[in-house]
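Appendix C reproduces, verbatim, an entry submitted by the partner laboratory led by Prof. M.T., so that reviewers can inspect both the input and the predicted structure.
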Amino acid sequence: MSSSTPSGEITERWDAFLAKIKERFEQTMSEAEAGCAALLDDAELDPMPMSNAWNAIRLQMLSLQRKIGDTWSEKIQEQLYDPNGDAKFEGAKVDREYAKGFALEQRIADELQATEVRIFGSAARKIYEVAKTKLEGHFACKQCGTPLQIPKGIFRSIYVVCASCAMTNTFEPGTFARSAEYFCAHYLANETAWPELKAMSAAEFRVNRAIDGDSDSAGEPRTLAMLKMWEAATKKYWEVYLKARIEIIPEYAADYDKDFNGKMQGFYNDVARYDEWKSPTNTSVNT
């Protein structure tokens, strides 16, 4: 139902609402990095308290982001239409105001992800340096005392044959190094692949905010070309991420193809829900 409230007042309220959302988000992000770093240090490099705190912050900010779309659809959009006005003008006005909210939603998504990459990348570097120091200790054969040659990037128990007496030794890196493997490999690789992650996330955000072709709502119609851009960005991200992870843990190289195909299959399972992806003109193999 259309409102008799002048559109100028509606857009002023919309602008004020968006400004408050932006202010709260920026204040929270300005405090998050230092707070998470302090939690990591206080926990003696145990990332769990920091991770729990960040997850709580992230959920709060995603809820804040959702308020933009909810407020638009519940309180703003219909009030901007004037039943006695020119349809083209009213449509352009609605699109313009919608774009303000969309831009802030995108900014929150981008900055939230960028902050997460920085927080966890910094934490992973701290943990990784300590883990490497522990792994660079003196590991000797239990039978003859000859120093053992431990392969690079090993954060788990392995058998190592002594070059002198041929005895098989069990190399145990210690609890700290063992627990550091996945955390460090994932977040350091994610940091390396940040430009690709940002592009992939932006493409996905655009798809998720797009409207069906027959919808009357404001927004960009979803197209096959849009989905293909998301596909290309996803391929690039996983390629860079997985190769960066191998630089940290070389033994992951043996599973590169399997890991890449598994990640992309997850994408194809997800994108298959869109009718545009099922178009006869789509030549992707995994449709």
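The longest helix spans residues 87-135. Additional entries are available on request from the coordinating office.
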